[in-house]
Design a protein that fits this description.
3-stranded antiparallel beta sheet, about 325 residues, Nuclear Transport Factor 2, Chain: A
Length: about 325
Amino acid sequence: MRMQFPNPAPPQGTLQITVSKAISVIKKAQPDITPQELSHITLPNPVTYYYMFTRKSGPLKGNAYLIDPYSARISPPQQLSSYFIAKVISFHLNLMAGAKGVLASGIFAFFAIFTLLSGLWLWWPSTMRQLKLRLSIKRHAPLRRTLTDLHNIFGISLYLLLLLTTVTTVVMVYNSYTKGGLIKAIDGTTTEKQLSVVSKGKRLPDDVLIARLHQQYPNFNILFIDRPQHATDVLRARFEQKGYGLLRWGYLEMNPYSGNILIDQDSTAPAGQKSMALITDLHAGRFGGIWVKVLYTVTGIMPLGLFITGLLVWWKRKQAERKAKIRRQQLFV
């Protein structure tokens, strides 16, 4: 039986189990799990309510195990890729076709930019009267005129946001398909600096390190951590800042022996990485509150409305041309 989502609210005053407790639970339930598969841990946060461990190899690759952060109850294996939302994400990112799908999305978006620009050219009014007409739907008009008015309103109402998401799609696809080509053009390299530390004595426990992260960054939601597996490895944490601004996502790297922060991407990331992070935030609407998400949702649906109304306008025009041709032929019979 699958664990229910979201988790029911725990009794008041109940504390979350620690990372070390979660690791002991997964080891007990899955004795064959490897240390590498225990290195990357999703922590309970506003998006994911559970500790999550994911198989990285073997016949059970892709299986995720969720642990209730209050009761320490472990779920049956969850093949996350089989969920409907995972398929939707895959279709959006790469049309469920891997790297070829990513390239196809970029090509479609590239030509969509010219479609949007040509549409703006055709819509642009030369007088205030035309502007008023193109921002309204004429009552009791023929169907063809109504469809044209709807097409104009759909196209211009959120035009700038639709153009922004289309342009950022092209930029993101190009950067992804060229393996960081834009970042390399700005920063000179696409490789993030891999830090290492000098082994000095015994590492601090994971629970202590994570507690220090929460203490030093109370305005961060720590999304997941990469636990050090070797003596010279650092502890790496991915975070999302609380609030509504841009560039809220980033990572931290911590010395597991001293607890000192070595890298804070929020302040030390190179310009190229920050630029791509900003483009991603603008594309996905990772700023503002619920109304920004509503705005982006409507913008995402808008191309469908443009396609349908544009197709119907074209069809009505073809019908009118066909009827006119028949009438002209009848005149000469």
